[in-house]
Specification:
This protein is α+β, with helices and mostly antiparallel strands. The chain contains eight helices and ten strands.
Length: about 250
């Protein structure tokens, strides 16, 4: 990329950031980018004292169950319709051990890495990680280049191809932007669990556990001390916030 192009991109980035802040003041918190709109309080914001994470027990993840997917679609305003070019923030995978033949079902979502590749490659800073470890996309400055989609080893990001209607005002989305699982940040900031976890628990499977990895007294921290957990693509050294049990 030439020096002049770099300069133009940087100027555009600064302009868009400023515009986003002004727009946020004008239209309210539902349109502000997540770093500001979805903090726990205007005074505190996200804190590095916490790191939100998820533990998924694949031995409890039922074959054919899509409750987590349905709950995610409903909460975040995704269509969930096969054949449509809408986003999918969580999907069910069937994996098979090549040597033993053992198969597992597991939900795959943004892994909320400590060292997220999507953030590293983003030219505008739209891909970002909050202080509490939640990885998000600032839709005000996303230019739709899709570098982050190519960089994500989990194929966890989607591109919005079509205009959107009937959106959840707490989950602003936009055509031409990349998006992915946010851990239902709007719920987390109200001290609620992500929709997928709530649905899994309500169905009786209890395969998903969410909480603060930095709090030794949290259920997830205690569980991770007593059971063997696995990172998907641990060889990449990303230190994912999502861990799996039973694979």
């Amino acid at each position: 990329m030439s020096e002049s192009m770099n300069s133009k991109l940087e100027n555009r980035r600064d302009f868009l950031k400023a515009s986003a802040l002004v727009a946020g003041v004008a239209v309210g918190p539902g349109v502000l980018f997540y770093g500001i709109a979805h903090s726990r309080s205007p005074e505190e914001g996200a804190s590095s004292k916490q790191r939100w994470g998820m533990l998924i027990d694949t031995t409890k993840c039922a074959v054919g169950c899509n409750d987590c997917v349905t709950a995610c679609n409903t909460e975040n305003g995704l269509s969930g319709k096969t054949g449509e070019q809408d986003s999918q923030w969580i999907r069910k995978l069937n994996i098979k051990h090549l040597q033993t033949g053992v198969e597992h079902n597991l939900p795959m979502l943004c892994q909320h890495c400590e060292n997220p590749p999507c953030v590293d490659v983003c030219p505008t800073g739209a891909s970002m990680k909050r202080a509490d470890g939640i990885v998000l996309v600032d839709r005000h400055i996303c230019i739709g280049c899709r570098y982050c989609m190519m960089a994500c080893p989990y194929k966890a990001r989607s591109f919005v191809h079509e205009p959107l209607t009937d959106q959840n005002p707490e989950v602003p989305r936009g055509k031409g932007c990349v998006e992915s699982c946010t851990f239902c940040v709007q719920r987390v900031d109200r001290d609620e669990t992500p929709a997928c976890v709530e649905a899994c628990t309500a169905s009786g499977h209890q395969a998903m556990l969410f909480g603060d990895l930095n709090n030794p007294e949290s259920d997830i921290a205690k569980a991770m001390k007593t059971v063997a957990t696995t990172e998907v693509r641990a060889d990449l050294g990303l230190n994912t916030g999502v861990r799996y049990q039973g694979i």
